[in-house]
Amino acid sequence: MNPERLEGLYQRLGAQEGEDVLCRAMEELAYRLGQADRFYETSDFAEMRKCTHTLGAIADQIGMSALTRISADVVQCIDDGDAVALAATLARMARVGERSLYAVWDLQDIPV
Questions:
Q1: Can you give the pTM of this predicted structure?
Q2: CB neighbours (10 Å) of residue 57?
Q3: Kind plus residue range of the DSSP H or E element containing 70
Q4: In whole angstroms, how far apart are CA 53 and each of 34, 59, 83, 107?
Q5: Cα–Cα distance between 63 and 86 in angstroms, integer?
Q6: According to the model, what pLDDT value does residue 100 have?
Q7: What is residue 74's three-state secondary structure?
Q8: What local confidence, expressed as pLDDT, does residue 86 receive?
């Protein structure tokens, strides 16, 4: 988690708009984490790649550095056709994504 990224977002947009952007991003991340799993289960790797790439861009916007890196790793596993690495990396993305969402939620209680 990169709290400086969130602080910059709030400074640029103001408290209310920053909060709105952050809440929408968190909702979208939670949705895309679930969607990536569904695409994996149906072996729709093209859609999974698009979904995961977008997930990484959203995570980067709000300072979730680890999730950004792991999403890029998932995309690389898809591109490489490495099924074993994909399964492991997708599971890691789900764990880190969940922890990151909780971390941002906890940060929201701190005045910026």
A1: 0.86
A2: 11
A3: helix 65-80
A4: 14, 10, 18, 25
A5: 24
A6: 85
A7: helix
A8: 98
- Cα–Cα nearest to 55, from 82, 74, 81: 74
Per-residue pLDDT tens for 69-96? 999 999 999 999 999 999 999 999 999 9
Q: How far apart are CA 105 and CA 56, in angstroms?
A: 18
**From CA 103, how far away is CA 62, in angstroms rounded?**
12
End-to-end, the C-alpha distance of the chain in Å comes to 16
Q: Which residue has the tokens 């093209």?
A: 46
Q: What is the CA radius of gyration of the chain?
A: 14
Tokens 């640029």 label which residue? 12
Per the CB < 8 A criterion, the answer to whether 77 and 89 are in contact is yes
User: Quick one: tokens of 4?
Assistant: 């400086």
CB 56 within 8 A of CB 48: no
- Alpha-carbon gap, residue 87 to 66, rounded angstroms: 18
Take residue 88 and report the two structure tokens written for it: 């492991």
